[in-house]
Here is the input.
Amino acid sequence: MNVEEIKKDFPIFDDKDIVYLDSGATSQRPKYVLDEIQKYYNNKNANPHRGAYSLSVESTEEYENTRKRIAKFINARYPEEIIFSKNASESLNLIAYSYGLNNVKKDDEVVISIMEHHSNLVPWQFVARKTESKLKYMYINDEYELTKEEIESKITDKTKIVGITHVSNVLGTINNIKEIIKYAHKKGAVVIVDASQSIPHMKIDVQELDADFLVFSGHKMFAPLGLGILYGKKEILNKMDPFLMGGDMIEYVYEQETTFAPLPNKFEAGTQNVGGVVGLGAAMDYIEKIGYDEIERMEKELVRYARKELSKLDFLELYMTPNEENHSAVISFNIKGVHPHDVASILDSDGVCVRSGNHCAQPLLRFMGIDSTCRASFSIYNTKEDVDRLVSSLRKVYDMFKGFVKK
Amino acid sequence: MDEMYNDIIMEHGMNSYNKKKLDTCDFCEKGHNPNCGDDITIEVKLDGDIIEDMAFTGYGCAISQASTSVMVDTLKGKNIKEAKEIIKTFIEMIKREITDEKELEKLEDAIAFRNVSNMPARVKCALLAWHTMEDLLEKNGK
Here is the structure.
């Protein structure tokens, strides 16, 4: 596969001369995905699980077939281990409310890493406060990585839950989640993996990882906005209380009590985002058509090039691991003495889209002793020319500011 | 863009002489934009109705720092009523509610921020100090 061909699949690049380096926030969508969504609304749209008429049955089939498709995609044992939500944050909140509040007791410990996105951090502060348990952090070393020693010193016999991101949305560090899960299981803890930043770039196999829960969102992997996934082991999900209540998640409703539907419907209250689900199915088709091996090969090459070119700019601070093999498709940086929002605005005037700010990871940035960074995140449609345009635009920013920066 | 990052904004934004603590002050007010981390504190010393001295501390992007510094220059020496009018005019300029040149004259150097109205993502950077000053006056019954 060649990146120029791939880029042509994405209509947003047809008439916009932009360098899109914010796929870590949300990816662009290929025409194939957009067409499949349109086909669904044109030909099969009805409320699933509701009607006895054939159109509703077709909608239900689309919805449930995609659930099977996702189960296969991440190698879950059963389709009912896949729960649809509106985003990864909602998936994590579901776990915090339905599992966390009921399984963490006073003086237990919840362990997360300092590089968690707020969505895998704030819910655990809430659980810790409500259950009078303790929230502990695994910190990164000078190479922006979690060491085995740090992991093993924080996860103890008191640990009931470990929350860990597969790839940091700020640093791009790839965590060795397989080892973390193995160690946490030895200590009797349940592990929640945030795969939002990894699944667009690498193959996920929940059985091989032995993850208890794994969450991600569709919109970072070429599917439309508004759809999140929760994977959970069936035996754990079965024991959990519902999170949101209402239509379609019940069996019998009496005036004073209700019995709930079995998995997966128990966790899917109200009319679901079937169009989004169809889009995610199509996005998985698209990923499989290119193949994860090919995606990894192309992205590794691009990230290697970006690391090399950015490292040549001596006015940049780069926040990335020196170990290329542990680095995914995100690079955070600052121009020394220049605020990232100013950098991002000037890059924008050259058509280069990067994120600036705290990236929903304030505790991490505070730990690193900084307020904010610029972040370039890459995807399959990014070219080496994109990196070159980033570099030349960064030089321009530096030239504008260098006379004013305090030494 | 080069128009936006003009000399006034670069000089005030990167190395402002107004960025300091006053020896004594009557009022101070903290302002912050949680989304971007900008965080400033404005200090004001009054002589009766007149803003005798002003300064600020804190951190943020060049646009928010410059906007704070230029506000200090603009409001110093004005009475409270004039200050309030200038603040109102500045906010309306950024929101594109005023375009009349004559009305904008009272903004003095602060008119340099006019182009921020073309950069929706940066409007809150330019307005931080002015909203903070508005709060300061209101909270202290001025």
Remarks:
- The mean pLDDT of chain B is 91.
- Helices of chain B lie at 7-14, 62-75, 80-94, 101-104, 123-139.
- The longest helix of chain B spans residues 123-139.
